[in-house]
Amino acid sequence: MNTVAIYTNSSLACSEIITRKYSTSFSWAIKLLHRQFQPHIHAIYGFVRLADEIVDTFHSFNKTALLHKFRDDTFAAISDNISLNPVLQSFQNTVNTYNIDHHLITAFLESMEMDLDQQVYTREQELNHYIYGSAEVVGLMCLKIFCEGRQQQYEELAPYARLLGAAFQKVNFLRDLNDDCAGLQRTYFPGFNFEQFDEVTKKAIEASIDKDFREALAGIKMLPVKARFGVYVAYRYYLSLFNKIKRQPPSLILQQRVRVHNMVKIGIILNAGVRNRLNMI
What are the tens digits of pLDDT across the range 186-241? Predict the structure, then answer.
């Protein structure tokens, strides 16, 4: 193995560590993908997480300057096929290996920049634009890997990948209402009022998420077998989280972050495994 390959493998390992540290749920789901896909999905997660940290947690630094530098460094890494930033090294390797469309990366970074400048979303069109860049394109990047160059399959499955990404993002919005509104002064749902969040408003938001989940499942069933089980587990985890949120009153959602316990996650994996083996997804 040459030195560049050693460095790339070390960088991919770095992205895997970031995934494990930030999300045990996604780490478990990624382990259920074919071994060939795992390092590349870690690479995407590491890239996305680093950008998200810039806009959400690096409060004592110039976030705009950091994000612009991150964007420039990202495309330089992709163009040069090398980066001294291990996260960008693993990401550029994945982008170039699977020919991931650059416009997906641009859309993601644009949504991250929106988090720096726009705190309140007043129109559905604005929210949809943000969700496309912050979540749907991430699903499309992963789909590009799963399809392994089969462009027609990618185009057929792309609408479902977008729906699943949107569902995951909206669940995150509901789960993080207190952190987003009180901590970051962000309001994603148009017409949302932190002081007047009631059951009617909550159910209206949930109806949109329900629709995304139902329609996305059809696409999961059509995924290549090497990717289907891992994606299905992630789907079932987020659906379980969403169902728990639906059972909570609005007042509790505003006070604490809803979580799924590890034993429940294990149950989800076991149940999903049985259903997958019996072709009952």
Answer: 888 887 777 788 899 899 999 999 999 999 999 999 999 999 999 999 999 999 99
Residue with tokens 């994606």: 231
Does the pTM surpass 0.90? The reply is yes
Of the candidates 116, 11, 104, 139, the one whose C-alpha atom is nearest the C-alpha of residue 67 is 116
- Report how far residue 141's alpha carbon sits from residue 180's, in angstroms, rounded to the nearest whole number: 26
Q: Check the CA dihedral 7-26-116-182 and report its sign.
A: negative
Task: Give the residue, 262 or 165, on which the prediction is more confident.
Answer: 165
Give the chain as a DSSP string: --HHHHHHHHHHHHHHHHHHHH-HHHHHHHHTS-TTTHHHHHHHHHHHHHHHHHHHT-TTS-HHHHHHHHHHHHHHHHHHT--SSHHHHHHHHHHHHHT--HHHHHHHHHHHHHHHH--B--SHHHHHHHHIIIIIHHHHHHHHHHHTT-HHHHHHHHHHHHHHHHHHHHHHHHHTHHIIIIIS--B-STT--GGG--HHHHHHHHHHHHHHHHHHHHHHHTS-HHHHHHHHHHHHHHHHHHHHHHHS-HHHHTTS-----HHHHHHHHHHHHHHHHTT--
CATH hierarchy code of domain 3-277: 1.10.600.10
Q: 244-252, long-range: CB within 8 Å, 24+ apart, which pairs?
A: 245/171, 245/174, 245/175, 245/206, 246/206, 249/199, 250/197, 250/198, 250/199, 250/201, 250/202
